[in-house]
TrEMBL record:
Name listed for the protein in its UniProt record: RidA family protein
Gene3D superfamilies assigned: RutC-like
InterPro entries assigned to the protein according to its UniProt record, in alphabetical order: Endoribo_LPSP/chorism_mut-like, RutC-like_sf
Matching SUPFAM superfamilies: YjgF-like
PANTHER family: ENDORIBONUCLEASE L-PSP_CHORISMATE MUTASE-LIKE DOMAIN-CONTAINING PROTEIN, ENDORIBONUCLEASE-RELATED
Domain Endoribonuclease L-PSP/chorismate mutase-like: 5-144
CDD domains named in the record: YjgF_YER057c_UK114_like_1
A Pfam family recorded for this sequence: YjgF_endoribonc
Protein backbone atom coordinates (compact mmCIF):
# COMPACT_ATOMS: atom_id res chain seq x y z
CA UNK A 1 0.00 0.00 0.00
CA UNK A 2 1.38 3.40 -0.98
CA UNK A 3 1.85 6.26 1.47
CA UNK A 4 -0.99 8.15 -0.25
CA UNK A 5 -3.33 5.15 0.07
CA UNK A 6 -2.45 4.99 3.79
CA UNK A 7 -3.42 8.66 4.10
CA UNK A 8 -6.70 7.91 2.34
CA UNK A 9 -7.40 5.06 4.76
CA UNK A 10 -6.57 7.31 7.72
CA UNK A 11 -9.20 9.73 6.36
CA UNK A 12 -11.75 6.90 6.22
CA UNK A 13 -11.70 6.86 2.40
CA UNK A 14 -10.91 4.18 -0.13
CA UNK A 15 -10.45 3.97 -3.86
CA UNK A 16 -13.29 2.46 -5.87
CA UNK A 17 -12.93 -1.18 -7.00
CA UNK A 18 -13.00 -0.12 -10.67
CA UNK A 19 -13.51 2.93 -12.83
CA UNK A 20 -14.73 1.77 -16.25
CA UNK A 21 -14.81 4.34 -19.10
CA UNK A 22 -18.31 5.25 -20.30
CA UNK A 23 -17.45 5.89 -23.96
CA UNK A 24 -14.69 5.64 -26.59
CA UNK A 25 -11.78 7.15 -24.70
CA UNK A 26 -8.90 6.05 -22.54
CA UNK A 27 -8.95 6.79 -18.81
CA UNK A 28 -5.48 8.30 -18.92
CA UNK A 29 -2.57 9.20 -21.15
CA UNK A 30 0.96 9.21 -19.74
CA UNK A 31 3.38 11.31 -21.75
CA UNK A 32 6.73 12.92 -21.01
CA UNK A 33 6.27 13.09 -17.24
CA UNK A 34 2.65 14.23 -17.46
CA UNK A 35 -0.40 12.16 -16.61
CA UNK A 36 -3.57 13.40 -18.23
CA UNK A 37 -6.65 11.92 -16.53
CA UNK A 38 -9.96 11.86 -18.39
CA UNK A 39 -12.96 13.35 -16.65
CA UNK A 40 -14.53 11.15 -14.00
CA UNK A 41 -18.12 11.49 -12.87
CA UNK A 42 -19.49 10.89 -9.38
CA UNK A 43 -19.93 7.14 -9.72
CA UNK A 44 -18.83 4.13 -7.70
CA UNK A 45 -17.80 1.08 -9.72
CA UNK A 46 -19.71 2.33 -12.76
CA UNK A 47 -22.89 3.32 -10.88
CA UNK A 48 -23.63 7.06 -10.69
CA UNK A 49 -24.46 8.22 -7.15
CA UNK A 50 -25.61 11.85 -7.60
CA UNK A 51 -27.58 13.35 -10.45
CA UNK A 52 -28.21 16.82 -11.83
CA UNK A 53 -29.27 19.35 -12.35
CA UNK A 54 -28.00 20.91 -9.14
CA UNK A 55 -30.26 23.71 -7.87
CA UNK A 56 -30.16 26.22 -5.03
CA UNK A 57 -32.25 23.72 -3.03
CA UNK A 58 -29.61 20.97 -3.45
CA UNK A 59 -27.54 20.28 -0.34
CA UNK A 60 -24.04 21.72 -0.89
CA UNK A 61 -22.40 19.12 1.38
CA UNK A 62 -23.92 16.29 -0.69
CA UNK A 63 -22.55 17.78 -3.89
CA UNK A 64 -19.15 18.16 -2.26
CA UNK A 65 -19.28 14.42 -1.54
CA UNK A 66 -19.98 13.93 -5.25
CA UNK A 67 -16.89 15.98 -6.15
CA UNK A 68 -14.79 14.00 -3.66
CA UNK A 69 -15.97 10.79 -5.32
CA UNK A 70 -14.85 12.15 -8.68
CA UNK A 71 -11.42 12.78 -7.14
CA UNK A 72 -11.30 9.21 -5.79
CA UNK A 73 -12.04 7.93 -9.30
CA UNK A 74 -9.21 10.10 -10.64
CA UNK A 75 -6.88 8.64 -8.02
CA UNK A 76 -7.94 5.12 -9.01
CA UNK A 77 -7.02 5.89 -12.62
CA UNK A 78 -3.72 7.48 -11.56
CA UNK A 79 -2.80 4.38 -9.58
CA UNK A 80 -3.71 2.21 -12.57
CA UNK A 81 -1.47 4.34 -14.80
CA UNK A 82 1.48 4.67 -12.41
CA UNK A 83 1.37 1.58 -10.21
CA UNK A 84 1.63 3.81 -7.12
CA UNK A 85 0.07 7.12 -6.15
CA UNK A 86 3.39 7.99 -4.52
CA UNK A 87 4.75 8.71 -8.03
CA UNK A 88 2.67 11.89 -8.28
CA UNK A 89 5.08 14.81 -7.99
CA UNK A 90 2.61 17.68 -8.42
CA UNK A 91 -1.09 18.11 -9.11
CA UNK A 92 -0.94 20.70 -11.88
CA UNK A 93 -4.57 21.30 -12.78
CA UNK A 94 -8.13 20.18 -12.04
CA UNK A 95 -11.11 20.90 -14.24
CA UNK A 96 -14.48 20.71 -12.52
CA UNK A 97 -17.94 20.62 -14.07
CA UNK A 98 -21.25 20.84 -12.22
CA UNK A 99 -24.50 19.85 -13.95
CA UNK A 100 -26.55 22.80 -12.70
CA UNK A 101 -29.54 24.94 -13.45
CA UNK A 102 -28.88 28.18 -15.26
CA UNK A 103 -27.63 30.86 -12.89
CA UNK A 104 -26.36 28.46 -10.22
CA UNK A 105 -23.37 30.19 -8.59
CA UNK A 106 -21.93 27.64 -6.13
CA UNK A 107 -20.20 25.37 -8.64
CA UNK A 108 -16.70 26.38 -7.46
CA UNK A 109 -17.66 25.59 -3.84
CA UNK A 110 -18.65 22.09 -4.95
CA UNK A 111 -15.38 21.50 -6.81
CA UNK A 112 -13.47 22.77 -3.75
CA UNK A 113 -14.03 19.32 -2.20
CA UNK A 114 -12.08 17.60 -4.99
CA UNK A 115 -9.34 20.22 -4.73
CA UNK A 116 -9.16 19.81 -0.97
CA UNK A 117 -8.76 16.05 -1.22
CA UNK A 118 -5.67 16.44 -3.42
CA UNK A 119 -4.27 19.07 -1.03
CA UNK A 120 -4.97 16.86 1.99
CA UNK A 121 -3.18 13.93 0.33
CA UNK A 122 -0.23 15.70 -1.29
CA UNK A 123 0.22 18.86 0.78
CA UNK A 124 1.75 21.74 -1.18
CA UNK A 125 2.26 19.41 -4.14
CA UNK A 126 -1.52 18.98 -4.20
CA UNK A 127 -2.16 22.70 -4.81
CA UNK A 128 -3.14 23.28 -8.42
CA UNK A 129 -4.54 25.58 -11.05
CA UNK A 130 -8.25 24.97 -11.62
CA UNK A 131 -11.32 25.64 -13.66
CA UNK A 132 -14.77 25.15 -12.10
CA UNK A 133 -17.82 25.76 -14.27
CA UNK A 134 -21.49 24.91 -14.37
CA UNK A 135 -22.84 23.14 -17.44
CA UNK A 136 -26.26 22.07 -18.66
CA UNK A 137 -25.55 18.31 -18.73
CA UNK A 138 -22.95 15.63 -17.99
CA UNK A 139 -22.65 11.93 -18.91
CA UNK A 140 -25.34 9.75 -17.26
CA UNK A 141 -26.90 13.00 -15.98
CA UNK A 142 -24.23 12.97 -13.25
CA UNK A 143 -24.14 15.97 -10.95
CA UNK A 144 -20.34 16.46 -11.08
CA UNK A 145 -17.33 15.59 -13.26
CA UNK A 146 -13.65 16.34 -12.61
CA UNK A 147 -10.54 15.85 -14.74
CA UNK A 148 -6.87 16.31 -13.85
CA UNK A 149 -3.35 16.89 -15.08
CA UNK A 150 -0.52 15.54 -12.90
CA UNK A 151 3.28 15.74 -13.07
CA UNK A 152 4.82 12.36 -12.21
CA UNK A 153 8.23 10.92 -11.40
Amino acid sequence: MSEIEKRLADMGLELPPDCPPRASFVKFRLWNGLLVLSGQICEWNGEPRWFGPVTEATDLAEMQQAARLCALNLLFCAREALGSLDRVEQVLRLGGFVNAEQGYARGPAIIDAASQLFIDLYGEAGRHARTAVCVSSLPANAAVEVDALLAVR
